[in-house]
Design goal:
With 258 residues, this protein is α/β, with parallel strands linked by helices. The protein has helices at 23-34, 46-58, 73-87, 110-136, 160-180, 205-215, 224-235, and strands spanning 14-17, 38-43, 62-67, 92-95, 143-147, 186-192, 246-249. The protein starts with 13 loop residues before the first strand and ends in a 9-residue tail after the last strand.
Length: 258
């Protein structure tokens, strides 16, 4: 007999994951599906989306795929309602899609990289939330999780487009937590640290090892699924009193002295 009252199950609930074809997004889609959720796999490449859908359905779980450019107002306005209609509900949004653009402030491509970064890393979050809100309001456990970065808690040389956007994700999260709190919609943020994804793939393993031993408490890079579990915890029905939180999933990077 269970003595606790709040549910830790997302079974039967519908979650939209952006940037779900690879890395942390793919791991998040897999984890939610394993836990019984109805997963909307969205990303730019149709073949990559279908591959993740096939992985999930091949394991006996439930997912459908949509090509979605989160940088497009028209695409988001079309696809998000399609997802809610297909599943008959929408309970959670995971704003995971991202890009990494770096340049010195006086670099020739800086204005272009700045615009691209803000469009995908922060404006898109607000865009997806706005489109999803009418459907989230019908859920009894509506959850929004924005994926930022430890760059939201610090800074890296030549990273101002990325860093500024990630700081903005934290601000958006906190402000919307206050705004949507009276409607019992929680809004939280994950700040991944050094994770083995496509963005870090080009870094040689020996350099990863040196960085991790110098900068993290756990002395290693993280895996995408380890980030996904933080996201899942924010989306549990039981997590109804957690909102506006900013959770580093960084192996202790932000608590170590350089």
């Amino acid at each position: 007999m269970r003595l606790s009252k709040l549910s830790r199950s997302v079974a039967g609930r519908a979650v939209l994951v952006t940037g779900a074809a690879s890395g942390m997004g793919r791991a998040t889609a897999h984890l939610f599906a394993d836990e019984g959720a109805l997963v909307a796999v969205t990303d730019l490449d149709a073949g990559a989306v279908q591959k993740v859908v096939d992985e999930i359905t091949g394991a006996g779980n439930q997912a459908r795929g949509w090509v979605l450019d989160v940088g497009s107002d028209a695409a988001v306005a079309r696809v998000v309602p399609e997802i809610a209609q297909a599943f008959g509900r929408l309970d959670a949004v995971v704003n995971n899609a991202g890009i990494a653009r770096f340049s010195p402030i006086d670099g020739p491509d800086y204005p272009k990289l700045w615009d691209e970064s803000l469009s995908v890393l922060i404006t898109a979050h607000a865009r997806v939330i706005r489109a999803a809100l009418p459907f989230l309001r019908k859920s009894d456990a509506a959850r929004i999780v924005n994926i930022a970065s430890t760059e939201a808690l610090g800074a890296t040389k030549y990273g101002s487009p990325y860093t500024a956007a990630k700081h903005a994700v934290v601000g958006l999260t906190r402000s919307l937590a206050v705004e949507l709190g009276p409607e019992k919609i929680t809004v939280n943020c994950i700040c991944p640290g050094p994770i083995r994804t496509g963005m870090t793939q080009a870094i040689p393993d020996d350099q990863k090892a040196v960085f991790a031993k110098r900068r993290t408490a756990l002395l290693r890079y993280g895996e995408p699924e380890e980030v996904a579990h933080g996201t899942l915890n924010f989306c549990l029905p039981a997590s109804q009193y957690i909102t506006g939180a900013v959770l580093p999933v960084d192996g202790g990077l932000t608590i170590r002295n350089a």
